[in-house]
Structure formats: structure tokens, C-alpha cells
Amino acid sequence: MKVVAFAVGSDGDVLPFIALGKEMVKRGHEFEIVTFTCFQERIEKNGLRYGKLHGDPEEMMKKMLSEREDGPGVLKAIRELLHKYPELYADFERACRWAELIMYMQFGGLAYHFAEKLKKPCIRTFALPYDPTKLYSPLFPFIKRNSLRCKYSYVISDIMMNWATLDTVNDWRKHLGLSKWNLFRFYKKMYGKRILTLYQYSNVLFPRDPAWKEHIYVTGEWNIKLKENDKISEELKQFVENGKAPLYIGFGSIVSKQMEELQNKLLVALEKTGQRAVFVSAWTKFNTKKQNPNIYYTDYVPFTWLFKRVSAVIHHGGAGTLSLAVRAGKPNLILAFGGDQYFRGKQAQAIGVAPEPVFLPNTLITAELLERKLLELGKEEYSVAAICAAEKMAKEDGCKTACDLIEAYFKKEGK
Fold first, then answer.
1. What is the pLDDT of residue 171?
2. Which residues pair with 124 in a beta bridge?
3. 236 touches 301 (CB < 8 A)
4. What is the pLDDT of residues 321-374, one digit of tens each?
5. 234-393 domain in CATH 3.40.50.2000?
């Protein structure tokens, strides 16, 4: 089987497909990931095909998080990015014509239209719930949980996403000879059949809604098994091992002008609480000139190695970071830059592995607030809950479950 997966985003979008692709290749299938060129080397090193996608993930994150915190601004940013890169049509078309089965997550949903034209089976997959449920609302996390408003919020988010992509979608559908799309057509069915939907997260973190139909599965996470000693400096090993377990502090693919201010206030809070920390830079670099014997700065370290050795994990609420932290049995403190991150923070709080998250756009951040949060994070109840959650997550095998479902689906729907 030839499988293509579209990952339009950052590491959190690409890495799960690498994990899934490796398992599919082991089973004798071909697997191509279509994404930005900055991920090409990593994809090919893992024995998978790479497909080029025009665009820049850092530019995308800057537009969607750094400059436009409000919902309408994010949607406008999506429209601008689609208009800026007309080459995307050819990128999608080439990959879909090669494939026998098409997978996509979130912004990669544009592949749906090529699957419809080419009459090829496709699979939706997400790192957050996108099917209506009363339990919670990822895109509207301030709505009261367990309410009808939660359920209806999914319809609103579908309409909003259609608004953002409508011009591009209808241009593409015209090229493909397909009927016009509109605000009230959604991506959940094709030719009257429900599309197989795989949620690539743990049922421990986000319990499946029993009201969902049988075509919707929560598989467990799609994680890459990394060699733990890769790229770990002796200096970092000594820092972690010689003293009280430090905190992890890092914000992944977030690009923010306020990062240095946040760093300064965290440093003050850490000094007041007497805690050590490892600051891990990613897309926005921490200021490493602020030297302190209780602080260690690094650009990259495998989380599977580091998280076992820290006392807690302070982060932005990224899907991968949260799941790896809980899988390591560590409590979390989430400082969210966007709504979906705040949603994960609320969910972490709901299952007991984190205190109340902080939504940075609406909060006056002070060293005193962060000090209180650090002290609360040290409560035993969060560690106990995280260890319990980790034991349950260890029993899941997301890649195996997903591959079994994909193979069964293709056997039924493929030509």
C-alpha cells in the first residue's frame, strides 16, 4: 500500500507521522510525509519518503500565534498563507496521485478534495478532538464543559475554518472539476460514507466520548522510540545528576516577542523558591547570558531522557510535550500562548496532573504569580496522579493500533 500523510505545521504535526510511517514500512508498505523542507532530513533518515510542501513553518507560527492572538486574526493568517503559496496545489496533487491511501491532519485537510476527485480512500487524524462532543471544546476552551455549548462549538469552528480556506478550496475544486464548496460542507463524510478518524492521543489524557460513532477511534499516541543517549552532553548529565532534580522549562515551536520577559520572571521565581531548572530552547532562543549555577541552557535534548530526570515539566501545552511528560510520570505547569494549548492545560488539570494553567495573552505575568505556581506544582497530589496516568499510558500501543485500523480500512475501501 502507498500511503501519503500531509503534515502542515510544526514538529508536533510531523513527528507522529514519522512514528506511524516507521511501523507501516515495517509491515511492507510505502509511506510518504508531505511537509516543509526543514523536516526532509529527519523524515528520510527514518527510512520514509519525503514530499515537498511549499511554505515556512516558522512564518506560519509567527502569523498564527505571535502576532494574531485573536480567533479572527488566526483565520485571516491562514487565508494569507494559502494565497501566498499557490504552489501548494501542485504539491498536494502530485502526492495524492502517487498515493493509494491519503491521510491528513488539520490544515492538511485540503487533501480531502484530491481524494474526492481521485476516488481514493482517506483518513482524518488529529492531535485534538475535532468531532462534536459535550465533554470539552479545544478551540473554545473557556466554554463550560459538559454542555451543549461545547458540542455546538465544533460546528462553529468548522464554519470558521471553511471561511478561512473557502477561496483556495473553491479555486482548487474548480481545477479538479468538482462542485463548489460552501461554509456548511464539512470534512467528515465522502460519497455519503463516514471517513475513518484516528485520534493520535491517549485515552488517559482525553477520554473518548462514548456517544461518538464507530468510525472514530482513540488509538493512543504515535511516538518515536529514540535512543536515549543521543546528543546528551556530559555537562548536562552532570548538572542533572549532581543536585536536586531540576525543573524542565521550554516552549517548543512558540515564537514570541515576550519570551525574554517571561524568562526573566521565571528566573526570579526560581531563585525565590530555590529550585534548579533546565531551559531548553527551540524556535525562540532563551538568553543564555543570564548565567546562574542553578540554571542550565541547552538547544536540544531528547525528552524521553530528560523528563525521567526532572521533578516537573513547565511548557506551553504542546501535544507532544504534555504526553511525554505524563508518560514519564511528571506533573505539568502549562503557560499557554494559544487557545488549544490552554485547552490541554485544562485537561491536564482535569485529570489531576497539573494545577490551573496560565493563559498568557489574558494574564498579567509577574514573578510573584510564577512563584506561587511553582510552589503549587510541588504538591504531592500532582506527582501521584502523573505516576498513575503513566502506568495506564504504558499499556497503550498507538502505532500498532493505528496501523491495524489503517490496513483493515484499506482492505475494505481500497481498490
1. 96
2. 104, 197
3. yes
4. 999 999 999 999 999 988 789 999 999 999 999 999 999 988 899 999 999 999
5. yes
Residue 5 confidence (pLDDT) above 90: yes
Give the pTM.
0.88
| CATH architecture for segment(s) 2-221+397-413 | 3-Layer(aba) Sandwich (3.40)
Confidence at residue 73, expressed as pLDDT on a 0 to 100 scale: 65
Between CA 349 and CA 145 the distance in angstroms is 13
Q: Where in the chain is the domain with CATH 3.40.50.2000?
A: 2-221+397-413, 234-393
pLDDT at site 163:
93
